[in-house]
Amino acid sequence: MSECKDCNGGGKFILGALLGAVVGGIAGVLFAPKSGKETRHDIAEGAKKVGNKAKAAGAKITKRGHKRAEVETEAEEDDE
Predict the structure, then answer these.
(1) How many domains, the chain?
(2) pTM for this one?
(3) How far apart are CA 78 and CA 53, in angstroms?
(4) Domain of 44?
(5) 18-38 pLDDT per residue, tens
(6) Where on the phi/psi map is residue 32: left (φ > 0), alpha (ψ -120 to 50), or beta?
(7) Which of 21, 35, 37, 70 is deepest in the core (most CB within 10 A)?
């Protein structure tokens, strides 16, 4: 089995980005001088953006996983 030196680097980055987005969103809601209706609209839009980014990140991670599985399978077949 081969080792991946940088396998978790992307996961840490994504986690940090999501955490930053949540903290920034909360701070923005608390300090924004908008009406409740406008704030709810902004929250809904922000949630859609975060959801889309999470879907894209998940698809990217899944694709990497499939590629890694293919490489591992090929390596095992070569060993036989």
Answers:
(1) 1
(2) 0.47
(3) 37
(4) 10-79
(5) 899 889 888 887 787 878 788
(6) beta
(7) 21
